[in-house]
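So, is this right?
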Amino acid sequence: VGAIANHVFSQLLKILQEKNLMHMSLPKFEKLYNECMVLFRDWNEKSTFRNIINQLKGSTTRSASRPRTKQEHKDLQTRLSDISHFRDEHEKLRQCVGVVLKQRVVELLGENSPMESIDRAYKEMKKINVLNVSEEGKKQWEEALEGYNNIVEEVEDSIKKDLCDELDQAQKSSEMFRIFKHYYAVLDRPRIRNAVRSYQKRLLENVKDDIFELHKKFRVQYHNTNNSQMSEVRDIPPTSGQIIWMAQIQRQLDGYLQRVEHVLGSNWTKHVAGRELKETGELFKEKLRDANPYDQWIKEIEHHSMSFKNAIFDIELIRGERTRLELFVNFHHRLVTLAKEVRIMGWLSSVGSSRSSGPMRVPRTAGVAAKKANDLYPYVISLQASIKTYTITMTKLDERPDLLALVAAWYNDVHNKIALGMEFTWEDPMRAYA
């Protein structure tokens, strides 16, 4: 068994030496490393072959050969694991530092640059025989690793100094958030994280306050805010206005939570303060989903009549100092609002409104009614303008009855038109009449 083991692992070591593990690209190295781990696992688990041979040999021979072979095997397996871990951490470091330098628009390469220092440290690791698992080889590996870590510490100290200097010079919290956004990729490095802990605590308190204020704004309710009035001025109907308002609140909330990530780093949910803010944010989002006005709007339109069979004109009795009858266009404002809601919700769906409950699908009947209302709307406006002019003119004629004889022909013509319109419904063709 010892001879077979020596042969297997000597062949493996020979193959690995030819591959130059520290010079290979990381994907190729990972593939080779995984294949080696499969070999080690199979050798350790599939022991039937070894047991058969051991039964044919004396116990003295077994005890003399197995321990040495097992130890060589374990040392090589451990060294490969160490190399894999080292290369993974090195690549993560290069990526993190690269992101920071790119965010700060700093030259990535060049003499004495952080990236050049990291690459120089890696080159020193290439100079040793990383597969030498003898006592001398272990010493060389540890010394090279120590030299690499010393250079990495210098790079981290340089980044830490720049970060703290910028934070000290910042006048506002917004500037500090911007600075952290540039450095967030390296905030998981222990040396850097410990140096900025006090700044992080201060900014996280600001985020808590911002989320609290946002929650107060939400509790006020949309209809009691200036946003509702501004939406009405801009001809945005109530439900669509509330959906837009709530989407803005959710975007602000997402922005605040993103600030937490920028301050604490990519693993922000592993921090106690990060987890608390994430839970607060999720509870807030749940309240936003529960208060979703879209579902309520769907229930309302399903219960309201959307018929167009009513006459286009109607007469209303106006009581006051002078009781009178007044003609008006009999087109329900609810249908106009429905058309606006459907139009704007279609736009919100097309641009990807941040509704957590899914796309805003308008019922087919509501869509048909909205299209009909859109088609009729120009006629409604035209008729309303005509009736307004008619009402003003009739008021003036009441004040000047002596003029009635002069306009008698037009007077009769208008009344005939109105009488004809009283027989029309909104389902009749409007083009010829309106």
